[in-house]
Amino acid sequence: MEHFWTSGPSDKNKAMVEYLQQYGIIKSKKVAEVMEAIDRGLFVPAGNPPYVDSPMQIGYNATISAPHMHATCLELLKEHLQPGMHALDVGSGTGYLTACFAMMVGPEGRAVGVEHIPELVTSSIENIKKSAAASLLKEGSLSVHVTDGRLGWPELAPYDAIHVGAAAPEIPQPLVEQLKPGGRMVIPVGTLFQDLKVVDKKLDGSINVRSETSVRYVPLTSRAAQLHNY
Ligand code: SAH
User: Which GO molecular function annotations are given, in alphabetical order (predicted)?
Assistant: First the structure.
């Protein structure tokens, strides 16, 4: 029986992680540990059930992805999120995955979020400050910037890992250029029908693209197009 004094947010976050492990979505200890450390409840706007396996509205026609999508992307990228590596999170939204990346690459690495809605960048920084990644933000290995993510963030390129949290009609060339040889990008591609693509840049610079699964993300677009009708 669950007692009210043992059912704080962290317990619910742990239960969410256990559920994702049970269904084989979280496969590794590394991903389980980071999703346990970064409490999703700190990133989902008040009034939404944060630990339910579903995307949630975060305002500005954006959503926080469902926990199983975050887990899938972390599993796909985990070898490219080793301590000391560089990671870019395009369309960082709530900052949840940026915080996870920062925990994985550690204080010697760099985790950068880029997002084109300034209000979301501000709230994501507030969320991160409450999370286990707060010290990484303070010390500068984690940062979030307002910019058009289709251009990437050349200052800290090349990246071992690039995650794109919004669906692009096609893979943006600047992001391919900013991927390190040996690095991996995970990006939803398509409009109505979308595939989560895994883009590997081999050591000789050649590119291999495969489809992981069908997905439904908000579009990677201009700020004006996103806020139209908002
Ligand atoms: N990974 C985020 C996903 C947020 S939804 C999370 O789980 O919280 C996708 C995000 O991409 C939105 O916040 C949206 O504002 C942003 N976005 C869309 N087009 C963009 C662009 N061209 N540049 C930067 N961010 C963009």
Answer: protein-L-isoaspartate (D-aspartate) O-methyltransferase activity
